[in-house]
């Protein structure tokens, strides 16, 4: 994965009010830190940052230019507005060329398991250790032809050269389960409906008998007798 060059500007307005003004100007408040450097508060162009994340994922390495100085950085924490789907704040950690970092990477299942099975996802991301400038966007693992009862672990994933797992190899990623018998379920559903209908009819018949006994009383055929 190659780094994305992006120009930023120093940020002097802080607090909620300052952050709102920054976002209204089309920028995202961010802080740049790491490797013993003092935290640097900056503002990134929102559209450029969003485009880079959409294209390369959250593990995109940025070449950030501030006042002529260039720094390599990796998003450490991204805060989003869940309603507007915009970025509220970004924490960026400084990285060096050749340095190895630990990141979470999406796991993509390829192929199809046997017919009549359901695939249960246990972990859709796993932690790996890799060089900062060679982070994979995702990791693929095949479930082609797997039968019910099979499972996929982190150790089954083929890692790119220079990449190591940061989790146990037996970490469960996916489980192949047998799909439920729909015909049996439909039959049980119909039988259940018939039983419920019979119970309702039984309750109605008891209510009718009680009403007849209570309303008719000794006055069979009288004007106030109610026929159910």
Automatic annotation (TrEMBL):
Residues 6-92 form the Large ribosomal subunit protein bL25 L25 domain. Pfam families: Ribosomal_L25p (PF01386), Ribosomal_TL5_C (PF14693). GO terms for biological process: translation. It comes from the Bacteria. Residues 1-20 are annotated as: Disordered. Residues 100-178 form the Large ribosomal subunit protein bL25 beta domain. Keywords: Ribonucleoprotein, Ribosomal protein, RNA-binding, rRNA-binding. Gene3D superfamilies: Ribosomal protein L25, beta domain (2.170.120.20), Ribosomal Protein L25, Chain P (2.40.240.10). SUPFAM superfamilies: Ribosomal protein L25-like. GO terms for molecular function: 5S rRNA binding; structural constituent of ribosome. GO terms for cellular component: cytosolic large ribosomal subunit. This is one of the proteins that binds to the 5S RNA in the ribosome where it forms part of the central protuberance. Part of the 50S ribosomal subunit; part of the 5S rRNA/L5/L18/L25 subcomplex. Contacts the 5S rRNA. Binds to the 5S rRNA independently of L5 and L18. HAMAP family: Ribosomal_bL25_CTC. Belongs to the bacterial ribosomal protein bL25 family. CTC subfamily. This is Large ribosomal subunit protein bL25. It comes from Allocatelliglobosispora scoriae.
């Amino acid at each position: 994965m190659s780094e994305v060059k992006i120009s930023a500007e120093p940020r002097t307005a802080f607090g909620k009010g300052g952050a709102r003004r920054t976002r209204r100007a089309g920028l995202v408040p961010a802080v740049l830190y790491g490797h013993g450097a003092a935290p640097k508060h900056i503002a990134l162009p929102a559209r450029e940052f969003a485009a880079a994340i959409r294209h390369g994922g959250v593990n995109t390495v940025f070449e950030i230019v501030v006042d002529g100085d260039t720094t390599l950085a990796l998003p450490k924490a991204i805060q989003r507005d869940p309603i507007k789907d915009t970025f509220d704040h970004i924490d960026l950690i400084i990285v060096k060329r050749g340095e190895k970092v630990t990141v979470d990477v999406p796991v993509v299942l390829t192929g199809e398991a046997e017919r009549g099975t359901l695939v249960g996802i246990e972990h859709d991301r796993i932690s790996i250790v890799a060089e900062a400038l060679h982070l994979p966007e995702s990791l693929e693992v095949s479930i082609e032809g797997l039968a019910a009862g099979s499972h996929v672990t982190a150790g089954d994933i083929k890692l790119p050269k220079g990449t190591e797992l940061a989790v146990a190899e037996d970490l469960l990623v996916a489980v192949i389960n047998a799909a439920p018998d729909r015909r049996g379920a439909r039959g049980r559903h119909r039988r259940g409906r018939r039983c419920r209908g019979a119970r309702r009819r039984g309750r109605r018949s008891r209510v009718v008998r009680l009403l007849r006994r209570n309303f008719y009383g000794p006055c069979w055929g009288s004007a106030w007798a109610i026929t159910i």
